Amino acid sequence: MNNPQLTKNGELKHLLSIEGLPKAILNQILDTAESFVGVAEREVKKVPLLRGKTVCNIFFENSTRTRTTFEIAAKRLSADVINLNVNTSSQSKGETILDTVDNLIAMHADMFVIRHAQSGAAHFIARHVAPHIRVINAGDGRHAHPTQGLLDVFTIRRYKPDMHNLRIAIVGDVLHSRVARSEIHALTTLGVPEVRVIAPKTLLPHDVERLGVQVYHDMNAGLKDVDVVMMLRLQNERMNGALLPSAQEYFKCYGLTQEKLALAKPDAIVMHPGPMNRGVEIDSAVADGAQSVILPQVTYGIAVRMAVMSILAGNTEE
Amino acid sequence: MNNPQLTKNGELKHLLSIEGLPKAILNQILDTAESFVGVAEREVKKVPLLRGKTVCNIFFENSTRTRTTFEIAAKRLSADVINLNVNTSSQSKGETILDTVDNLIAMHADMFVIRHAQSGAAHFIARHVAPHIRVINAGDGRHAHPTQGLLDVFTIRRYKPDMHNLRIAIVGDVLHSRVARSEIHALTTLGVPEVRVIAPKTLLPHDVERLGVQVYHDMNAGLKDVDVVMMLRLQNERMNGALLPSAQEYFKCYGLTQEKLALAKPDAIVMHPGPMNRGVEIDSAVADGAQSVILPQVTYGIAVRMAVMSILAGNTEE
Amino acid sequence: MNNPQLTKNGELKHLLSIEGLPKAILNQILDTAESFVGVAEREVKKVPLLRGKTVCNIFFENSTRTRTTFEIAAKRLSADVINLNVNTSSQSKGETILDTVDNLIAMHADMFVIRHAQSGAAHFIARHVAPHIRVINAGDGRHAHPTQGLLDVFTIRRYKPDMHNLRIAIVGDVLHSRVARSEIHALTTLGVPEVRVIAPKTLLPHDVERLGVQVYHDMNAGLKDVDVVMMLRLQNERMNGALLPSAQEYFKCYGLTQEKLALAKPDAIVMHPGPMNRGVEIDSAVADGAQSVILPQVTYGIAVRMAVMSILAGNTEE
Q1: Which pTM was predicted?
Q2: Is residue B194 part of a domain?
């Protein structure tokens, strides 16, 4: 089966999920992002790579935060940006999404950034679009959020360049996370020898070991001597369900505090995809502390999105 | 009485409705749009004609789709675009619309794109604005939606250039359509010899024959040997009223299927202003079929809107 | 205590309130705004002063009108503008505002325009941001709305340049106004010898005399021989409370009519910050009359905001 993310020549065509991306393309994105880190620090933070291109942020699910990152990235590339908040409640049928997309293609849009509550929405759209259109998945249900996964990997590489000697712990709601799975895939692809997941059984997928990770239910054991601690966001709605007793209880067992962080290596870095629930999955002292690279993640997120957009725009083959 | 759409010298000043536009101006818009069709296919889809101008999309009624077409057109002309969604429920008095408009004029806005649920709103605003301001009606109640009418005519001319030898059928809810009336006017002005309307009596205006059309209630008879089939959108709310029995019944009588389309000329084109109710006024096999020019309509819609904006911006006389 | 609005060298760093601005900086803003008045009248209304800068309009409280003025000003300076409507109801904790802001800083935003229902919000954010970020208060609760105050002073200076010989009356709800206090401060700082406030006792702060103004409860007495009449907007919600009997009664006592205006100097100008309640605090005949400079205020508002933004962007010291 051919890979819907790649052109016939094996170049990046859409960014739908990290799964299925060859190592060479992962490294191409990360290396290209390096060159955009500097752009954000210039006096004039603009490059003309997407001038005259139309980037449509089609958000079937509202997310001001994510939309802003893509809007800033596209504008720094000099693209024209159109924001569309599409109320899915007004859509009676699946075809209507395609009609919306077809209309924008007919208006000569060049790139779609898609956010949708349903898993697979971005793939569905990518399979449908004309050959010259590029699609970026900005989060589809529980499935994937590849630019988040990429910016996390980019951040790790920046702080811990020797990826073949890392021990990384991913902590929290792996089950419902759209980034954890992608990250595990990216990290193992890039040669990280040891990836751990730390979570209660109720927040882990059944087959999690098959992803090549070590499973811990005890945070103290799991954090021991790691180089990187990647916290996951706990969705508030999980609290009301049967999966978890309470936010206080969760924080006690799986919240990251200075005490628990002391079990990791002294130079370990702390990551979080945001937005944080301070006092639920992470203590403010850690979030704002010296080992936190949470805000650099955001900074690198712009560079990574600019890299993805510019690579997609440059690969004009079908 | 002088024409509010024209300058003293007879040039286009505002675009409020197709009625009242001389044939020469209709052709000027269509010919200018031709030159913009190519711009959308370029690598850099921008021309500097409106650079430094401020275009305000003032939408008193929400329509992401229509707003997007004007926003893309204005940005391709290099204008600065300001989107304003004005909640009319917060407006107690008629003057408040004018206060809103006066404020934007005072901010040196150059062009207003107005969408309003009330017929006549764009005319009302155009009568009020300062002489150097240009107004485009993007849909006012049941009254008019002239750029839609123009893009329809433009599409017909592109596919069937010899307009003096055409037979065109307009099918559906002519009564509530803001484009049907404009289209009939444009088509007869441009010399189309035979325009038919096909609809149940409940969806036709009383005086429809006076517009110079032939009336059909039977779709099989009406479609016979036509060159162009223009379908109209059926508003869902009509279904609940006394005007129509049901969506199924409507589709059976007035929905366009491959079988009915076979009655038209073999090279007949099928048009629809969108968004489509698939399975209500049009079958998906027709909408996505070889004779459909529904997506080219959308493409030409950008070119027509760029043409209108650039002509208005260029006519600086009062 | 050091002034949070000024750099170590005494230059403008943030614009949070007119209180605390030295006379020299007030005059710098007003003089710079003069140079931008002309830009709005050019064919191409753009200058490249903020090219490549990212301006974020963060509106925790919705205000299309105010947002539009800042968006137009920033775009005329060639900035990239990102609009964020942040629903404060979704924010459980104070830190979340700072997390939102920290994220935008990490994305290399350069300037924040902040609107918030709570007094002090812009100060709170300004104290928190990195040294190279600039903050403009676009209205925080009852506290301040400094660009409105500045545009009012700019308008007065344009029509009545000899500010040392003016008698100015501010009429209406001084108690709840976020501009009245700033304006009084600015006017006395710039040497206006006589500032009057005219209002019922229920709409005046207790300590109003301490601001250096003369207090009138009778409008006929207060308007006598003034050069400038500055009307304040009466919030509709005041009407329902115990502070005022009714809109009709208020208009009778404190609404500005042609008759009352005749008591002022023959060349007196009439101002209003908008949006107006016609027939409540001001009669339409006056609002649209020859002495009204209400729309020029809006025009100058763009020039003043461009001036503030360009001065802030130019002062790169900490």
Answers
A1: 0.93
A2: yes
